[in-house]
Design a protein that fits this description.
With 159 residues, the chain is α+β, with helices and mostly antiparallel strands. Helices cover 41% and strands 26% of the residues. The longest helix has 34 residues. It is globular, with a radius of gyration of 19 Å.
Length: 159
């Protein structure tokens, strides 16, 4: 009896299918976690639409004092820092010598406006490597327009 093998292309396609399934599963888990926060704090924000319609690697959820309350698995993959290390810290622990003062001032000014914004910043991984990080930041508010949390979707971009 001869064992027949499928062409390598079939396995490549199947592998891509599995990767896409894993991404979808991860996004569903992230939506569930964030919806739990939404219910607890009464955010007026469509989490599912945001997560489903945006391309990102990492999610950082901070309280209004900008202390990290939750990060997704992509954060650990992107930065090298485990979730339990990041929680309770300010995202500034990711900054370093090449993080510009202008980018920090821009972030502060945009946060003060209380509206969603996009920007980029140079951050650093746990191993010390710098990376250019695109940020989409969303203020999460309640029905009375009180700021409760900030949600950052992050993605590495080429330097």
């Amino acid at each position: 009896m001869t064992i027949k093998q499928a062409p390598l292309k079939c396995w490549d396609i199947y592998g891509m299918f599995l990767v896409n399934q894993a991404k979808h599963f991860n996004k569903q888990q992230e939506i569930e976690v964030l919806n739990t926060y939404k219910k607890e704090f009464g955010w007026v924000f469509n989490i599912e639409e945001l997560i489903t319609n945006n391309d990102f690697e990492a999610i950082i959820l901070t309280n209004k004092q900008q202390q990290i309350e939750w990060v997704n698995k992509g954060f650990t993959k992107m930065t090298g820092y485990p979730a339990n290390y990041a929680e309770g810290k300010h995202p500034s622990f990711l900054q370093g010598k090449n993080t510009t003062q202008a980018s920090l001032e821009s972030i502060r000014a945009n946060l003060a406006k209380g509206r969603p914004f996009k920007t980029s910043i140079i951050n650093y991984k746990k191993n010390g490597d710098a990376y250019n990080c695109h940020l989409d930041i969303y203020p999460l508010k309640d029905r009375n327009n009180n700021l409760l949390h900030l949600l950052a979707l992050e993605k590495r971009i080429k330097m």
